[in-house]
Fold:
Amino acid sequence: MKVSNLKICIIQHTELMGGAFRSLLDLAEMLAKEYDVTVCIPEGAEMIAKSLDSHKLKHYSIKSIIPKWLYFSGGSRIISKHSLKLIKSLRKNNINKYVEEIQSLNPDIVFFNSMVSAIAAPFFDCRITKIGFVRETFNRTLFDRIYKKIFDNSLDGMCYIARSELDYLNLSIPCEVIPDCLNPTDDEYCSKEEACQRLNIDSSKFNILYVGGMQLIKGPQVLFRAAKQLTFDYTILYAGGINKSQLNNVNKYRFRRRSYKFLNEFKALYYELKHKGVLKDFGVVSNGMRDLFCACDVVVFPSVFPHQPRPCIEAGSFSKPVILSDYDITKEYFMNNDNALTFKPGNSDELSSRISYLKYHPDIAEKIGRSNYKATNVLHNYCDISEKLLGFVKKVILEKRE
Structure:
């Protein structure tokens, strides 16, 4: 039951589904316990709208251009064709139109669900409480000083997924670490055999789950290279979908060197593994991930840039071992040889070795899975984090009123 009549508008700048959307759902449902919440989404984000409807969450389609700047670890480079396009969203007339549209909803609080969208905060009415959420990882460059100045001067509070980012930016406003968590209403565990039967895959093979789709930052090409070195029967359970338009028009990206190289390698390896019958593509999964997690023997998160590994957190609730790229930011929640195995980012030889190790040491795999289960329950407990978030929002509101 709501204890406040205050209205919160949550700004979601992307229409992508996946882990980021699961985090949005958690945030909206937690805040909806005490506030009147409306999730503001890009116009045309039909899958998001349908999912919000199924969770009985109010939403609003933003008709104007959403101001954003995708400069973070794994995002656009400062000088790039994509960045030049984004500059259009930062034109004053575009920002004013966007702010006017959001403010027409009469929010008491605007919650920017990413630092990407929080750069528009200075243009909102100063009487509105403005809270940001750093879900990204900073690039550790001088440009981050601009973020710091904008956020310190225009936000009333900031949430972070990781303490490392909180300590790095060192804002003067109230800040809190709000880790990703798992809703206790999520599907419960079932046996590997049951899940494989429902998914129509071979339960006798070593199943490797990758969740992240065709995104360079997630490093699917690293897993594909590693898989080609494996000497036992395996299946890659690929979740997240592919962009066929990009794969069919790779030459369109020839002047974007990083994207061009990635798309060429991804396309070649994806179709090679699929042709061999060792990769099964489940596309964008919108009806729950339970069967995929239960059917797998290991979850691999081979990111090539520092990135929050939500799939590894979800794997913990199913007592599954995880292998992920070794970054300082991931050490907050995943320790090598404890609740995970790590490898040098981008090193497919190391990744292949880690996968083989778990295949031939099932006792170690089980031990890591149990440790991951404990870590998920302690560090990503939904009830604890919900209480922490609501407490922080109340604190920000009170300090704003003072």
